[in-house]
Structures are given as structure tokens and as C-alpha cells.
Amino acid sequence: MMPANKGKIFSQYEIITIMFYFTMALLHPIILVITYLFDIASVVDVLKFSFWLMIGILSLTLVGGVLLLTQKDRLKRRVKPAYRNEYITLLFLSAFGLLGFAVLYDYLGGNRQYIANVLTVILALMVYVLIVLGRKYFKFDYMRQK
Amino acid sequence: MKKKPISDDRLNRIIKYLAIALLFLAVLFMAVQFSSVWSWIIDAIKAVIVPVGLAYLSALIMFPLIKYLEKKGIGPRGLSLAIVFLLSVGIIFALFYFVTPFVVSEITDFFNDEFPKILDYLTGDLRDDFIFGTDAYDRLFEYLEESDLINNWLNATLPNLLNQLGSFLFPLLTAIAILPILLIYYLLDYEMLSDRLRSIIPQKQEKAVAELGSRLNQTVGAYLRGQILLMLAIGTVATIVYKLIGLKYYFIFGVLVGITNIIPYFGTILAALPPTIYTFIIGGTPGPLLVLGVNVVLQFIEGNIFQPIIMAHQLQMHPLVIITSILFFGSLFGALGVIFASPIAASIRVIWQFFREQRQAANMTPITGGDASP
Predict the structure, then answer these.
(1) Chain A residue with minimal CA distance to B232?
(2) Domain membership of residue B91 as a residue range
(3) What is the total count of domains within chain B?
């Protein structure tokens, strides 16, 4: 039996909603990665910074979520056959997010020896999520790319 | 068996090709005779082509942004151009402002702390680790000292290198200085300039040339935008991973990965060599194998996941074609040839495909015998 939404093309509302919540989920590690690059740990207390960053992201998620709901009708009317560029953005966000988790692990005092193990587990999860999202919503099947 | 005589048609064709080859050689001979005149003309063309080429390439990146802003109702052209221009200048300045101190401090640290260690290794520890034994090392060292080979080579190469650098840097700096002005006028009248260029082309070929131009623009533009995105991403990721594994001078090595990423295949090796050699000589953690492994994994992810998706199929060419084009254009145009070998090869492929399609279309048009009118 065919799945119900096999051939369904999703509107920009669904795509933007996915991208928004995906970005918000990864924003904390992404910002941490950038701060890590510029050695912010030597200037501020990383845990405090991380805490306030989380609060900021949570408020941003709330505001963004409400804004998305207000734009729902307008965005629902916009449809594209495939969302390639949006998928590429998601891919880049995931790459930096993945590194961000490793940085977060480092900041939280995790043993550096096991960073590769942590990265592998998160990478496998992320790849699975990306493939499913790409196939189902973005109409971009990476596994079938030639 | 009696040999078949050559037909008149075949003979005519052979004579025609011979005449063309002779004429070509004659033109080449004349050109060589007047080489001093040609060098003036080529110098003048070079002086124009570098800034105009840079403006064209920058426009390929900036014009889609201007068009996007205009589509969103941000206009007229002057306003959208000002926004994109100020944004680009701001990003470049911010990048220099934040990145330069890191780079300078890492280079200074390297020459203060590590360079003496590397010299010590080359003159001390390398002798014990030398693969052909200490005797061979001593003989080699003696030969190098006696023959003054390194000094002679440096004396012969350095002035030449500095000369070449000067002749390369001066036009480049001039081009960069006038680039903003050229770019502003080019982007302001982008459509008008394209129309003017089209008006030069004979009407019969106008449609075909416009189609070819648009395809070339698309290919080169896609390459440039994709490449810049990839360079930034891979450079940043490499810097972060290098820092995570505890590599000293992670910033320089990471920037190197980003910059060399512009050269397909060879760039990977160029970027992986310095940190690997550095960790091999200095020792400690991370080891050279880990650094090499990180590079291999990064390049694998970049080459197999990001590049095919970002570059799409517009620049997909056989690795052999890319490597050959790098060698060929590199020897022809130097560093710029190496950097732009892939888009040049892709452009040649686009032109080839375009003419093949044209020929096929011409072959497919039905041949009408005489007047078709009723």
C-alpha cells in the first residue's frame, strides 16, 4: 500500500516551519561553534553564556512560532515542486550544528577521547533525519542522486 | 591489386586543409616577427581584462542578490545596489578585522616558537630517523654544504620570484583599487550593457549567441557561488575540527583548507600536507595520522555530499578532464589558470554542447526541394 503523502507536495508553510524549528534546535550549538572559534571561553564564563543563549533562543522560538502562525494562510498558498535550496541550507545548518554538539560536549567537561564517538552517534541520527525530511517534505532524494 | 586513384573531391579537401595550415603558420610566423608590437598590445589587453574580468565575476555573485531585492520591492536599482554593495564591503572588512589578528598572532608564534624546533629537527633528529641511514644523511649534508646548492638556488630564484610577484601583484592591486567603481557602473546598467553587447552581434546569430551567453553565465555563476560557499564552509569546519582535536595553529591550517579548496583534487593534498608534516615533526597530540584522517574525512564529506548537491550537475566532469585542465591552464596562466581551470573547462563543454545541439537541430530541419510556396 502506498503511503498517504507519497506524492504530496508541501506548501511553503510546512517547509518554513520545519526549517524554523530545525534552526532553533541547532542554533545553540551553531552559536557555540562560532564562539569556540574565536576563543570566547577566555573572555566570558561559557556556562553562563550558554544559559542566557538558551533563554534567548527559547524566546526567539516563541516569537517566531507566533509569527509563523500569523503568516500561515499566506504561506499555505505558496507551493514549489521541490525545495532544493532550502534543503541545502538545512544541510549546512546540520553540519555546523553537529560540530556544535561536539563543542558543547567539550564545554560541559566531557572526555575529549570520546568526542569521535559522540560525533558519530549524532551524525548517524542527523543523516537519518535529513534523508527522511528530504525525501518526504523537500522532494529531494539524496540517495537517488546520480 | 590496383590502388584506387584519389578522387577530385578528396584532393580538393586535402589541398584546402594544407592551405589553411600553411596560412596559419604564415600568420604565426608574422606574429613572431612583430613580437614587440604584440607584447604592447597583449600588455594593454591584460591591463583591461583583469579588472573587467574581476568585475564580471563579482557581478555574477552580486547581481542575483540585487535581482532578489528588486523582486521583493526594494528599488530602484541604486538602492538595491547600495544595500548589496555596502553589505559585501562590510562583510569583507569585518572578515579582515576579525581574522587578521588571529592570522598574524599565529604566524608570529610559529616563527618564534616552532620554527627553531623545525630547524633543530632538520639538522638533528632527522639524521637519526633518516630512512637511508646516518651515513647517507651525512654525505648528503656535506654535499649540500660544499656545493652551496641551496644558496645558489636561492640566489637564482629569489630575484626572479620577487620580480614575478611584483609583476603579478601590481596589476592585481590596481584592478582591486578600480574594481568597486567598475562594479558599480556595471551593476547599475547591467541590462543596458547586455543589450548593447547584443546589438553588436549580427541579427542572424543574435538569438544563438544570447542563448550561449546565458548558458555560460549560468555555468560560471553557479560555479563561483557554489565554490565560495564551499570554501567558507569547509574552511570553517576544518578550523573547528582542528581546534577540537587540539592542533596548534588551527586557524592558519583551517584557512589554508578553505583557500586551497578552490583547486580540485590538488587542493586537498596541498591543505593536508602542512599540518601533517608539522605534527610529524613537532610530535605530541594530535598525531599526524589523526590530522591526515581528519583531512580525508572532511574532503570525503565535502566531495561526496556537499559538492554534488551545491554544484548540481552543471559542473560535473570526469576527474581526468578536471586534472588535465588544471595542468594545461595552470601552465598557460599560472596560479589564476589553476584556480579557474574547472570553470574554463566547464565553459568549453557548454560551448561544445551548444554547437553540437545547433548542428543536430540544423540536420533535423527538413530539406525542402525548391520553392515551398504554393
Answers:
(1) A92
(2) 43-108+132-200
(3) 1
